[in-house]
Amino acid sequence: MFEDSISPRDAQWREALRKEKSARERSATPRVKMTELAPDYRVTCSEEVNCGLTPAQAFTEAIRCLDCPDPQCVTGCPVGINIPGFIKNIERQNVVEALAVLKETSALPAVCGRVCPQEKQCESRCIYNKMKKDPVAIGYLERFAADNGVSDAPVVQPEPNGHKVAVVGSGPAGLSFAGDMVKRGYDVTVYEALHQIGGVLKYGIPEFRLPNSIVEREIDALAALGVKFIKDCVIGKTLSYDDLVNEGYEGIFVASGAGLPRFMGIPGENLIGVLSSNEYLTRINLMGAGHDGDTPVPVGRRVAVIGGGNTAMDSVRTARRMGAEKAMIVYRRSEAEMPARVEEVHHARQEGVEFLTLCNPVEYIADEKGAVRAMRVQRMELGEPDASGRRSPVAIPGAIDEVEVDLVIVSVGVSPNPLIPANFAGLDVTGRGTIAVDDNLRSSLHILFAGGDIVRGGATVILAMGDGRHAAASMHEQIQKQSKQS
Ligand SMILES: Cc1cc2nc3c(=O)[nH]c(=O)nc-3n(C[C@H](O)[C@H](O)[C@H](O)COP(=O)(O)OP(=O)(O)OC[C@H]3O[C@@H](n4cnc5c(N)ncnc54)[C@H](O)[C@@H]3O)c2cc1C
Questions:
Q1: What's the rounded Cα separation, in Å, for the pair 344 and 309?
Q2: Pocket of ligand 1, candidates 207, 256, 346: which has the most ligand atoms within 8 Å of its Cβ, to mutate?
Q3: Which of 13, 46, 123, 367 gets the most CB atoms within 10 Å of its CB?
Q4: How many domains does one find in the chain?
Q5: How far apart are the first and last CA of the chain?
Protein backbone atom coordinates (compact mmCIF):
# COMPACT_ATOMS: atom_id res chain seq x y z
CA MET A 1 0.00 0.00 0.00
CA PHE A 2 2.89 2.35 0.65
CA GLU A 3 5.42 1.40 -2.08
CA ASP A 4 6.33 5.09 -2.49
CA SER A 5 7.11 5.51 1.19
CA ILE A 6 9.97 7.80 2.07
CA SER A 7 10.96 5.35 4.81
CA PRO A 8 10.78 1.86 3.26
CA ARG A 9 11.46 -1.22 5.38
CA ASP A 10 14.64 -2.04 3.47
CA ALA A 11 16.17 1.39 4.15
CA GLN A 12 19.61 0.86 5.69
CA TRP A 13 18.79 2.75 8.86
CA ARG A 14 15.73 0.54 9.49
CA GLU A 15 17.73 -2.63 8.95
CA ALA A 16 20.32 -1.31 11.39
CA LEU A 17 17.64 -0.46 13.97
CA ARG A 18 16.18 -3.96 13.76
CA LYS A 19 19.60 -5.44 14.53
CA GLU A 20 20.10 -3.17 17.53
CA LYS A 21 17.59 -4.95 19.78
CA SER A 22 16.00 -8.39 19.80
CA ALA A 23 12.24 -8.96 19.77
CA ARG A 24 12.55 -10.20 23.35
CA GLU A 25 14.20 -6.95 24.46
CA ARG A 26 11.64 -4.88 22.58
CA SER A 27 8.66 -6.70 24.01
CA ALA A 28 9.95 -6.62 27.59
CA THR A 29 8.75 -3.03 28.15
CA PRO A 30 5.08 -2.55 29.08
CA ARG A 31 2.87 -0.30 26.93
CA VAL A 32 3.15 3.38 27.79
CA LYS A 33 0.37 5.05 29.78
CA MET A 34 -0.58 8.53 28.69
CA THR A 35 -0.93 11.12 31.44
CA GLU A 36 -4.50 12.39 31.83
CA LEU A 37 -5.95 15.32 33.73
CA ALA A 38 -7.53 14.23 37.03
CA PRO A 39 -11.30 13.63 36.65
CA ASP A 40 -12.23 16.03 39.48
CA TYR A 41 -10.31 18.83 37.81
CA ARG A 42 -11.19 18.16 34.19
CA VAL A 43 -14.97 18.29 34.74
CA THR A 44 -14.51 21.90 35.82
CA CYS A 45 -13.01 23.03 32.50
CA SER A 46 -12.70 22.24 28.80
CA GLU A 47 -8.96 21.45 28.81
CA GLU A 48 -7.83 18.43 26.79
CA VAL A 49 -8.04 15.32 28.97
CA ASN A 50 -5.18 13.37 27.36
CA CYS A 51 -1.87 15.15 27.86
CA GLY A 52 0.20 13.50 25.09
CA LEU A 53 3.46 11.57 25.44
CA THR A 54 6.75 13.10 26.53
CA PRO A 55 9.66 12.54 24.10
CA ALA A 56 11.14 9.96 26.50
CA GLN A 57 7.84 8.04 26.63
CA ALA A 58 7.45 8.15 22.84
CA PHE A 59 11.00 6.96 22.11
CA THR A 60 10.58 4.06 24.57
CA GLU A 61 7.19 3.08 23.14
CA ALA A 62 8.53 3.21 19.58
CA ILE A 63 11.20 0.64 20.53
CA ARG A 64 8.39 -1.84 21.32
CA CYS A 65 7.35 -1.98 17.63
CA LEU A 66 8.94 -5.10 16.10
CA ASP A 67 8.99 -3.68 12.55
CA CYS A 68 7.26 -6.85 11.29
CA PRO A 69 7.98 -8.02 7.72
CA ASP A 70 4.23 -8.23 7.05
CA PRO A 71 2.79 -5.54 9.33
CA GLN A 72 -0.85 -6.36 10.00
CA CYS A 73 -1.42 -3.02 11.74
CA VAL A 74 -1.32 -1.41 8.28
CA THR A 75 -4.15 -3.63 7.06
CA GLY A 76 -6.21 -2.45 10.05
CA CYS A 77 -5.79 1.22 9.04
CA PRO A 78 -8.55 2.35 6.65
CA VAL A 79 -6.06 4.54 4.75
CA GLY A 80 -3.08 2.16 4.95
CA ILE A 81 -0.63 4.42 6.80
CA ASN A 82 2.96 3.11 6.78
CA ILE A 83 2.74 2.55 10.53
CA PRO A 84 6.10 0.84 11.19
CA GLY A 85 7.73 3.45 8.93
CA PHE A 86 6.62 6.37 11.07
CA ILE A 87 7.20 4.53 14.36
CA LYS A 88 10.74 3.52 13.47
CA ASN A 89 11.47 7.17 12.66
CA ILE A 90 10.35 8.01 16.19
CA GLU A 91 12.67 5.29 17.51
CA ARG A 92 15.62 6.92 15.73
CA GLN A 93 14.35 10.26 17.11
CA ASN A 94 13.65 11.75 13.70
CA VAL A 95 10.17 13.07 14.48
CA VAL A 96 10.07 15.40 11.46
CA GLU A 97 10.51 12.39 9.15
CA ALA A 98 7.94 10.42 11.19
CA LEU A 99 5.39 13.15 10.49
CA ALA A 100 6.38 13.23 6.81
CA VAL A 101 5.62 9.49 6.60
CA LEU A 102 2.21 10.05 8.23
CA LYS A 103 1.46 12.92 5.86
CA GLU A 104 2.05 10.64 2.86
CA THR A 105 -1.33 9.05 3.56
CA SER A 106 -3.11 11.08 6.24
CA ALA A 107 -3.98 14.75 5.83
CA LEU A 108 -4.87 15.18 9.51
CA PRO A 109 -2.61 13.03 11.73
CA ALA A 110 -2.96 15.27 14.79
CA VAL A 111 -6.72 14.77 14.55
CA CYS A 112 -6.60 11.02 13.86
CA GLY A 113 -4.06 10.47 16.65
CA ARG A 114 -6.70 11.85 18.99
CA VAL A 115 -10.04 10.54 17.72
CA CYS A 116 -9.50 7.38 15.63
CA PRO A 117 -10.82 4.15 17.19
CA GLN A 118 -7.33 2.58 17.09
CA GLU A 119 -8.38 -0.23 19.41
CA LYS A 120 -10.73 -1.48 16.68
CA GLN A 121 -8.37 -0.73 13.79
CA CYS A 122 -4.55 -0.73 13.63
CA GLU A 123 -3.91 -1.66 17.26
CA SER A 124 -6.32 -4.60 17.08
CA ARG A 125 -4.02 -6.21 14.45
CA CYS A 126 -0.70 -5.58 16.23
CA ILE A 127 1.41 -8.73 16.64
CA TYR A 128 1.51 -8.12 20.40
CA ASN A 129 -2.14 -9.21 20.67
CA LYS A 130 -1.06 -12.69 19.51
CA MET A 131 1.71 -12.59 22.11
CA LYS A 132 -0.96 -11.82 24.75
CA LYS A 133 0.60 -8.41 25.36
CA ASP A 134 -0.80 -4.90 25.01
CA PRO A 135 -0.48 -3.61 21.43
CA VAL A 136 1.96 -0.85 20.53
CA ALA A 137 0.30 2.50 21.30
CA ILE A 138 0.06 3.49 17.63
CA GLY A 139 -2.51 6.25 18.20
CA TYR A 140 -0.46 7.89 20.95
CA LEU A 141 2.65 7.78 18.74
CA GLU A 142 0.74 9.25 15.80
CA ARG A 143 -0.36 12.12 18.00
CA PHE A 144 3.20 12.59 19.28
CA ALA A 145 4.66 12.78 15.76
CA ALA A 146 1.92 15.14 14.57
CA ASP A 147 2.36 17.49 17.54
CA ASN A 148 6.16 17.44 17.62
CA GLY A 149 7.33 16.81 14.06
CA VAL A 150 6.28 20.06 12.40
CA SER A 151 9.19 21.26 10.27
CA ASP A 152 10.10 24.96 10.08
CA ALA A 153 11.09 24.58 6.42
CA PRO A 154 9.34 27.28 4.32
CA VAL A 155 6.11 26.17 2.59
CA VAL A 156 6.69 25.51 -1.10
CA GLN A 157 3.69 26.66 -3.15
CA PRO A 158 2.73 23.99 -5.70
CA GLU A 159 3.10 24.88 -9.41
CA PRO A 160 -0.42 25.89 -10.66
CA ASN A 161 -1.82 23.47 -13.25
CA GLY A 162 -4.47 25.88 -14.57
CA HIS A 163 -7.53 23.89 -13.39
CA LYS A 164 -10.14 24.97 -10.83
CA VAL A 165 -12.07 22.68 -8.47
CA ALA A 166 -14.61 23.30 -5.72
CA VAL A 167 -15.28 21.52 -2.43
CA VAL A 168 -18.61 21.64 -0.61
CA GLY A 169 -18.11 21.15 3.14
CA SER A 170 -14.99 21.62 5.26
CA GLY A 171 -15.01 18.49 7.43
CA PRO A 172 -12.26 15.85 7.25
CA ALA A 173 -13.38 14.58 3.81
CA GLY A 174 -13.36 18.06 2.26
CA LEU A 175 -10.08 19.08 3.92
CA SER A 176 -8.20 15.98 2.85
CA PHE A 177 -9.51 16.31 -0.72
CA ALA A 178 -8.46 19.98 -0.76
CA GLY A 179 -4.97 19.08 0.50
CA ASP A 180 -4.37 16.47 -2.18
CA MET A 181 -5.70 18.65 -5.00
CA VAL A 182 -3.80 21.81 -4.04
CA LYS A 183 -0.58 19.74 -3.95
CA ARG A 184 -1.33 18.63 -7.52
CA GLY A 185 -1.45 22.29 -8.55
CA TYR A 186 -5.24 22.84 -8.62
CA ASP A 187 -6.86 26.13 -7.71
CA VAL A 188 -9.06 24.85 -4.82
CA THR A 189 -11.97 26.68 -3.17
CA VAL A 190 -13.78 25.17 -0.17
CA TYR A 191 -17.35 26.37 0.48
CA GLU A 192 -18.64 25.98 4.04
CA ALA A 193 -22.19 26.70 5.23
CA LEU A 194 -21.14 27.52 8.81
CA HIS A 195 -19.05 30.44 10.04
CA GLN A 196 -16.14 28.16 10.95
CA ILE A 197 -14.09 25.67 8.95
CA GLY A 198 -13.70 22.09 10.18
CA GLY A 199 -17.12 20.36 10.09
CA VAL A 200 -17.71 17.94 12.97
CA LEU A 201 -14.11 18.42 14.11
CA LYS A 202 -15.16 21.92 15.21
CA TYR A 203 -18.89 21.82 15.87
CA GLY A 204 -19.21 18.27 17.19
CA ILE A 205 -16.12 16.90 18.92
CA PRO A 206 -15.53 18.93 22.10
CA GLU A 207 -12.40 20.85 23.03
CA PHE A 208 -11.58 18.41 25.87
CA ARG A 209 -11.04 15.68 23.27
CA LEU A 210 -9.87 17.64 20.22
CA PRO A 211 -8.77 21.25 20.85
CA ASN A 212 -9.79 23.68 18.12
CA SER A 213 -6.20 24.92 17.95
CA ILE A 214 -5.17 21.50 16.56
CA VAL A 215 -7.81 21.69 13.83
CA GLU A 216 -6.84 25.32 13.10
CA ARG A 217 -3.22 24.28 12.62
CA GLU A 218 -4.25 21.81 9.90
CA ILE A 219 -6.51 24.40 8.23
CA ASP A 220 -3.74 27.04 8.31
CA ALA A 221 -1.38 24.56 6.63
CA LEU A 222 -3.87 24.10 3.79
CA ALA A 223 -4.40 27.87 3.47
CA ALA A 224 -0.60 28.34 3.30
CA LEU A 225 -0.55 25.94 0.34
CA GLY A 226 -3.13 28.12 -1.40
CA VAL A 227 -6.54 26.56 -0.55
CA LYS A 228 -9.24 29.26 -0.46
CA PHE A 229 -12.02 29.02 2.13
CA ILE A 230 -15.41 30.70 1.73
CA LYS A 231 -17.53 30.55 4.90
CA ASP A 232 -21.23 31.27 5.46
CA CYS A 233 -22.03 29.99 1.98
CA VAL A 234 -24.72 27.34 1.72
CA ILE A 235 -24.36 25.49 -1.56
CA GLY A 236 -27.80 24.67 -2.89
CA LYS A 237 -29.13 27.96 -1.45
CA THR A 238 -26.55 30.77 -1.60
CA LEU A 239 -25.01 29.29 -4.76
CA SER A 240 -26.59 26.68 -7.03
CA TYR A 241 -24.94 23.87 -8.96
CA ASP A 242 -25.17 26.00 -12.13
CA ASP A 243 -23.47 28.91 -10.31
CA LEU A 244 -20.53 26.64 -9.51
CA VAL A 245 -20.32 25.38 -13.10
CA ASN A 246 -20.48 29.00 -14.36
CA GLU A 247 -17.61 29.88 -12.00
CA GLY A 248 -15.51 27.57 -14.19
CA TYR A 249 -15.02 24.65 -11.79
CA GLU A 250 -14.11 21.49 -13.69
CA GLY A 251 -14.76 19.27 -10.69
CA ILE A 252 -16.90 19.55 -7.56
CA PHE A 253 -16.34 17.35 -4.50
CA VAL A 254 -19.37 17.21 -2.21
CA ALA A 255 -18.43 16.39 1.40
CA SER A 256 -21.45 17.85 3.13
CA GLY A 257 -21.64 15.26 5.92
CA ALA A 258 -24.48 13.73 7.88
CA GLY A 259 -25.52 16.42 10.31
CA LEU A 260 -29.27 15.90 10.33
CA PRO A 261 -30.23 14.58 13.77
CA ARG A 262 -32.59 11.63 14.17
CA PHE A 263 -35.22 11.38 16.87
CA MET A 264 -37.06 8.32 18.17
CA GLY A 265 -40.61 9.51 17.48
CA ILE A 266 -41.79 8.91 21.05
CA PRO A 267 -44.29 11.06 23.00
CA GLY A 268 -42.80 14.18 24.57
CA GLU A 269 -39.85 14.66 22.22
CA ASN A 270 -41.08 18.21 21.50
CA LEU A 271 -41.06 19.27 25.15
CA ILE A 272 -38.86 22.11 26.38
CA GLY A 273 -35.56 20.58 27.48
CA VAL A 274 -35.44 17.77 24.91
CA LEU A 275 -32.93 18.46 22.12
CA SER A 276 -30.55 16.68 19.78
CA SER A 277 -26.85 16.15 20.50
CA ASN A 278 -26.14 18.02 17.33
CA GLU A 279 -27.90 21.16 18.57
CA TYR A 280 -26.48 20.86 22.09
CA LEU A 281 -22.87 20.39 20.99
CA THR A 282 -23.05 22.99 18.21
CA ARG A 283 -24.41 25.62 20.58
CA ILE A 284 -21.58 24.99 23.02
CA ASN A 285 -18.63 24.17 20.72
CA LEU A 286 -19.30 26.52 17.84
CA MET A 287 -21.44 29.32 19.28
CA GLY A 288 -19.73 29.69 22.68
CA ALA A 289 -22.90 28.94 24.68
CA GLY A 290 -22.18 28.49 28.37
CA HIS A 291 -18.87 30.34 28.03
CA ASP A 292 -18.68 33.89 26.77
CA GLY A 293 -21.05 33.67 23.79
CA ASP A 294 -24.54 35.15 23.45
CA THR A 295 -26.08 31.82 22.42
CA PRO A 296 -28.20 30.28 25.18
CA VAL A 297 -28.13 26.58 26.07
CA PRO A 298 -30.24 24.73 28.63
CA VAL A 299 -28.20 23.72 31.67
CA GLY A 300 -29.59 20.57 33.24
CA ARG A 301 -29.23 19.39 36.82
CA ARG A 302 -30.30 15.84 35.94
CA VAL A 303 -29.33 15.13 32.35
CA ALA A 304 -30.12 12.02 30.30
CA VAL A 305 -28.26 11.40 27.05
CA ILE A 306 -29.94 8.81 24.88
CA GLY A 307 -27.53 6.62 22.85
CA GLY A 308 -24.19 4.84 23.17
CA GLY A 309 -21.98 6.27 20.42
CA ASN A 310 -19.14 8.82 20.48
CA THR A 311 -21.64 11.64 20.07
CA ALA A 312 -23.53 10.47 23.15
CA MET A 313 -20.29 10.29 25.19
CA ASP A 314 -19.26 13.76 24.03
CA SER A 315 -22.68 15.12 25.02
CA VAL A 316 -22.83 13.52 28.46
CA ARG A 317 -19.27 14.57 29.30
CA THR A 318 -20.09 18.10 28.11
CA ALA A 319 -23.18 18.09 30.35
CA ARG A 320 -20.95 17.24 33.35
CA ARG A 321 -18.70 20.16 32.46
CA MET A 322 -21.76 22.41 32.17
CA GLY A 323 -22.59 21.58 35.79
CA ALA A 324 -24.98 18.61 35.69
CA GLU A 325 -25.14 16.93 39.11
CA LYS A 326 -26.39 13.72 37.57
CA ALA A 327 -25.43 12.89 33.99
CA MET A 328 -26.70 9.60 32.59
CA ILE A 329 -26.19 7.55 29.45
CA VAL A 330 -29.39 5.72 28.57
CA TYR A 331 -28.63 2.91 26.14
CA ARG A 332 -30.91 0.11 24.97
CA ARG A 333 -28.23 -2.59 24.69
CA SER A 334 -25.43 -3.52 27.11
CA GLU A 335 -22.06 -1.84 27.41
CA ALA A 336 -20.43 -4.56 25.27
CA GLU A 337 -22.49 -3.42 22.26
CA MET A 338 -21.79 0.29 22.69
CA PRO A 339 -20.32 1.79 19.50
CA ALA A 340 -18.41 4.53 21.37
CA ARG A 341 -14.66 4.26 21.72
CA VAL A 342 -13.62 2.29 24.80
CA GLU A 343 -11.56 5.25 26.01
CA GLU A 344 -14.57 7.58 25.87
CA VAL A 345 -16.69 5.20 27.94
CA HIS A 346 -13.84 4.85 30.45
CA HIS A 347 -13.35 8.61 30.69
CA ALA A 348 -17.08 9.22 31.04
CA ARG A 349 -17.29 6.74 33.91
CA GLN A 350 -14.26 8.34 35.63
CA GLU A 351 -16.06 11.69 35.35
CA GLY A 352 -19.03 10.37 37.29
CA VAL A 353 -21.37 9.60 34.39
CA GLU A 354 -23.95 6.93 35.23
CA PHE A 355 -24.78 4.21 32.72
CA LEU A 356 -28.39 3.07 32.42
CA THR A 357 -27.76 0.21 30.00
CA LEU A 358 -30.52 -2.11 28.71
CA CYS A 359 -32.89 0.84 29.08
CA ASN A 360 -34.90 2.56 26.37
CA PRO A 361 -36.94 5.74 26.85
CA VAL A 362 -40.55 5.37 25.73
CA GLU A 363 -42.01 8.74 26.80
CA TYR A 364 -40.99 12.12 28.21
CA ILE A 365 -43.29 13.71 30.79
CA ALA A 366 -43.86 17.48 31.13
CA ASP A 367 -44.20 19.71 34.18
CA GLU A 368 -46.89 22.40 34.34
CA LYS A 369 -44.79 24.72 32.12
CA GLY A 370 -44.30 22.20 29.32
CA ALA A 371 -40.69 21.40 30.25
CA VAL A 372 -39.48 17.83 30.62
CA ARG A 373 -39.51 16.65 34.26
CA ALA A 374 -39.19 12.86 33.87
CA MET A 375 -38.83 10.05 31.37
CA ARG A 376 -40.45 6.64 31.28
CA VAL A 377 -37.82 4.01 30.59
CA GLN A 378 -38.49 0.50 29.30
CA ARG A 379 -36.06 -2.08 30.65
CA MET A 380 -34.62 -4.43 28.02
CA GLU A 381 -32.79 -7.73 27.76
CA LEU A 382 -30.55 -9.04 24.99
CA GLY A 383 -32.01 -11.32 22.33
CA GLU A 384 -30.61 -12.81 19.12
CA PRO A 385 -28.03 -10.90 17.04
CA ASP A 386 -29.57 -8.45 14.54
CA ALA A 387 -28.35 -7.24 11.12
CA SER A 388 -25.52 -5.28 12.79
CA GLY A 389 -24.21 -8.52 14.34
CA ARG A 390 -24.89 -7.18 17.83
CA ARG A 391 -27.40 -8.85 20.16
CA SER A 392 -30.71 -7.09 19.76
CA PRO A 393 -32.50 -5.40 22.66
CA VAL A 394 -35.87 -6.92 23.58
CA ALA A 395 -38.36 -5.20 25.89
CA ILE A 396 -39.12 -6.94 29.20
CA PRO A 397 -42.93 -6.79 29.42
CA GLY A 398 -44.17 -4.42 32.13
CA ALA A 399 -40.65 -3.39 33.25
CA ILE A 400 -41.02 0.39 33.03
CA ASP A 401 -39.38 2.87 35.40
CA GLU A 402 -39.84 6.60 35.77
CA VAL A 403 -36.62 8.61 36.03
CA GLU A 404 -36.52 12.28 37.01
CA VAL A 405 -34.73 14.46 34.41
CA ASP A 406 -34.69 18.13 33.47
CA LEU A 407 -32.66 17.90 30.24
CA VAL A 408 -32.69 15.16 27.60
CA ILE A 409 -30.14 15.03 24.79
CA VAL A 410 -31.10 12.65 22.01
CA SER A 411 -28.12 11.03 20.33
CA VAL A 412 -29.50 8.09 18.38
CA GLY A 413 -27.84 8.70 15.02
CA VAL A 414 -27.76 11.11 12.12
CA SER A 415 -28.96 11.28 8.54
CA PRO A 416 -27.24 12.86 5.52
CA ASN A 417 -27.56 16.62 5.12
CA PRO A 418 -30.43 16.85 2.61
CA LEU A 419 -29.74 20.18 0.92
CA ILE A 420 -27.45 19.05 -1.91
CA PRO A 421 -29.33 15.82 -2.69
CA ALA A 422 -32.58 17.84 -2.80
CA ASN A 423 -31.31 20.78 -4.88
CA PHE A 424 -28.96 19.34 -7.51
CA ALA A 425 -31.13 18.21 -10.43
CA GLY A 426 -30.01 14.90 -11.92
CA LEU A 427 -28.05 13.81 -8.83
CA ASP A 428 -28.85 10.20 -7.93
CA VAL A 429 -29.56 9.59 -4.26
CA THR A 430 -29.91 6.27 -2.40
CA GLY A 431 -32.96 5.24 -0.36
CA ARG A 432 -31.06 6.35 2.76
CA GLY A 433 -30.66 9.87 1.35
CA THR A 434 -26.91 9.48 0.72
CA ILE A 435 -25.39 10.51 -2.62
CA ALA A 436 -25.00 7.48 -4.91
CA VAL A 437 -21.44 7.12 -6.26
CA ASP A 438 -19.47 4.54 -8.24
CA ASP A 439 -16.21 2.89 -7.16
CA ASN A 440 -14.34 6.08 -8.07
CA LEU A 441 -16.71 8.19 -5.94
CA ARG A 442 -18.17 9.75 -9.11
CA SER A 443 -21.87 10.65 -8.94
CA SER A 444 -24.50 10.65 -11.68
CA LEU A 445 -23.43 14.25 -12.48
CA HIS A 446 -20.25 13.96 -14.55
CA ILE A 447 -18.10 16.53 -12.73
CA LEU A 448 -19.49 15.85 -9.24
CA PHE A 449 -17.75 13.45 -6.86
CA ALA A 450 -18.81 12.81 -3.27
CA GLY A 451 -17.41 11.18 -0.14
CA GLY A 452 -17.40 11.07 3.64
CA ASP A 453 -20.63 10.92 5.65
CA ILE A 454 -22.79 12.26 2.78
CA VAL A 455 -22.03 8.95 1.03
CA ARG A 456 -21.54 6.60 3.99
CA GLY A 457 -24.10 7.98 6.46
CA GLY A 458 -22.47 8.61 9.88
CA ALA A 459 -18.98 7.01 9.80
CA THR A 460 -15.55 8.02 11.06
CA VAL A 461 -12.96 10.75 10.54
CA ILE A 462 -10.41 8.42 8.96
CA LEU A 463 -12.93 6.95 6.52
CA ALA A 464 -14.06 10.44 5.52
CA MET A 465 -10.44 11.43 4.96
CA GLY A 466 -9.79 8.29 2.95
CA ASP A 467 -12.73 9.20 0.70
CA GLY A 468 -11.34 12.69 0.23
CA ARG A 469 -8.04 11.25 -1.00
CA HIS A 470 -9.74 8.67 -3.19
CA ALA A 471 -12.01 11.28 -4.81
CA ALA A 472 -9.04 13.58 -5.40
CA ALA A 473 -7.20 10.84 -7.30
CA SER A 474 -10.30 9.99 -9.37
CA MET A 475 -11.17 13.60 -10.20
CA HIS A 476 -7.56 14.37 -11.12
CA GLU A 477 -7.52 11.44 -13.55
CA GLN A 478 -10.80 12.59 -15.14
CA ILE A 479 -9.68 16.21 -15.55
CA GLN A 480 -6.33 15.12 -17.00
CA LYS A 481 -8.06 12.84 -19.53
CA GLN A 482 -10.44 15.61 -20.53
CA SER A 483 -7.71 18.16 -21.00
CA LYS A 484 -5.71 15.74 -23.17
CA GLN A 485 -8.79 15.18 -25.37
CA SER A 486 -9.53 18.90 -25.81
C1 LIG B 1 -20.05 14.55 18.33
C2 LIG B 1 -19.36 13.64 17.36
C3 LIG B 1 -18.26 12.92 17.80
C4 LIG B 1 -17.57 12.09 16.91
N5 LIG B 1 -16.47 11.42 17.35
C6 LIG B 1 -15.73 10.69 16.49
C7 LIG B 1 -14.53 10.05 16.92
O8 LIG B 1 -14.14 10.10 18.07
N9 LIG B 1 -13.81 9.36 15.99
C10 LIG B 1 -14.20 9.30 14.68
O11 LIG B 1 -13.48 8.70 13.88
N12 LIG B 1 -15.36 9.86 14.26
C13 LIG B 1 -16.13 10.56 15.13
N14 LIG B 1 -17.29 11.15 14.70
C15 LIG B 1 -17.70 10.99 13.29
C16 LIG B 1 -16.88 11.90 12.37
O17 LIG B 1 -16.70 13.15 12.96
C18 LIG B 1 -17.56 12.02 11.01
O19 LIG B 1 -17.68 10.73 10.45
C20 LIG B 1 -16.74 12.92 10.06
O21 LIG B 1 -16.59 14.22 10.58
C22 LIG B 1 -17.41 13.02 8.68
O23 LIG B 1 -16.66 13.90 7.90
P24 LIG B 1 -17.28 14.66 6.63
O25 LIG B 1 -16.16 15.50 6.10
O26 LIG B 1 -17.92 13.68 5.75
O27 LIG B 1 -18.45 15.58 7.21
P28 LIG B 1 -18.55 16.66 8.35
O29 LIG B 1 -17.44 16.62 9.32
O30 LIG B 1 -19.93 16.54 8.87
O31 LIG B 1 -18.44 18.04 7.56
C32 LIG B 1 -19.42 18.43 6.64
C33 LIG B 1 -19.41 19.93 6.49
O34 LIG B 1 -20.20 20.29 5.36
C35 LIG B 1 -20.91 21.47 5.66
N36 LIG B 1 -22.08 21.55 4.78
C37 LIG B 1 -23.19 20.76 4.80
N38 LIG B 1 -24.03 21.12 3.80
C39 LIG B 1 -23.44 22.16 3.16
C40 LIG B 1 -23.82 22.96 2.06
N41 LIG B 1 -25.00 22.77 1.44
N42 LIG B 1 -22.99 23.96 1.66
C43 LIG B 1 -21.81 24.17 2.29
N44 LIG B 1 -21.39 23.42 3.34
C45 LIG B 1 -22.20 22.43 3.77
C46 LIG B 1 -21.27 21.29 7.13
O47 LIG B 1 -21.58 22.54 7.74
C48 LIG B 1 -20.00 20.67 7.68
O49 LIG B 1 -19.09 21.65 8.12
C50 LIG B 1 -18.02 11.97 15.57
C51 LIG B 1 -19.16 12.66 15.15
C52 LIG B 1 -19.82 13.49 16.03
C53 LIG B 1 -21.04 14.25 15.55
A1: 9
A2: 256
A3: 123
A4: 3
A5: 33
